[in-house]
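Sharing a chain and its predicted structure for anyone who wants a worked example. Both blocks are below, sequence first, C-alpha cells second.
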Amino acid sequence: MKYLITGSLGHISSPLTQKLVQAGQDVTVISSNPDKKAAIERLGATAAIGSVADEAFLTEAFQQADAVYLMIPNDFSRPDYPVFQREIADLYVKALSHSSIQYVVLLSSIGAHLRKGAGPIDGLGYLEEKLEALPNLNIQVLRPSYFYYNLFSLAGLIRDAGIAGNNFGNTDEKLVLTHTSDIAEVAAEELLAHDFTGYNIRYIASDERHPSEIAAVLGQSVGKENTPWVPFTDEESRQGMLAAGVPPVFTELYVEMGKAIREGRLQEDYWKNRPVLGKVKLEAFSQEFAGAYQQS
C-alpha cells in the first residue's frame, strides 16, 4: 500500500512517517519546504515538494496513493486563516474525488462536533462534514484533545508573573490533554491496519487534569512551587495574546476556543466517548516544558 502524508515533518507527521517506513511501507511526505527533502529521504520516505494549496500539485500527489493522512497546516501569516482552512479542506475533498484513495485518516480535534464556535477547530469541523459526504471512501477521523504543546505559551507568564492562566479553568471540569507522540501512534495504528469502513470518529487523549493541577505541575518543574491557575476574562486573554505578538486573527480564534472550553461545550462529546488514555502524562510532559522554559 502506498501512503501519502501531509504535514511535512511536524510533531505528528515525522514520527508517523517513521512508524510507517519501519513497517516496510511505501511512504510519500508532502512538504512545501524544499529544505525538508533530504530529511524526508533520510527517514526512508519519498519527498513531494509542493503546497497543499496548489490544486494541480495536490491532485497529482493524491493519484499516487492508496491511503492518506490529512491535516490542515497552521499558517500564522494568513490574516484570513479561517478562509484558508476552508480552501484547503475543499482542495483535499476535490483531490480525493479524483483519486483512487480508499482510506483517509484525518487529524481533526476535540470540539469539531460543534462545527461553529470553537475557534480554529471550526475549519476542521468543516472538513469533517465535507469528507463524510464523499461516497465510497473509508474515513477515520481522529479527534485529539488540547495539545500539551499549547502549554508552552504559559512559560513567560509563569516566569514573569508567577501564575498560569487562560480564559477558562473557573469550573470543576478537567482539561483533556494530548501529546503528539500519542497521536502519531494512533494514526500509524489506523493506517497500518486500514480495517475501518465508512465514516468513524476516534478520540485521543493522554491525560485529564484540572487547570489548577496543570499550573502546579508546570510550576514545580521550573522551580516555581505552588504556581496558581488564574482564570482570565476574554478581554484579558485577548490583550495578553496581542501583547505577546499573537496575530489578531489567531487571538480571536483562541479566545473563542477558550470560551468554548469554559462553557463546557468544547469537550462535551469527548466525555460521552472517552477513550483509553495514552502514555504521556502531565508529569512527563512537564520535563519538556521545563526545557522550553529555560530557553524562553
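Comments welcome. The radius of gyration is 19 Å.
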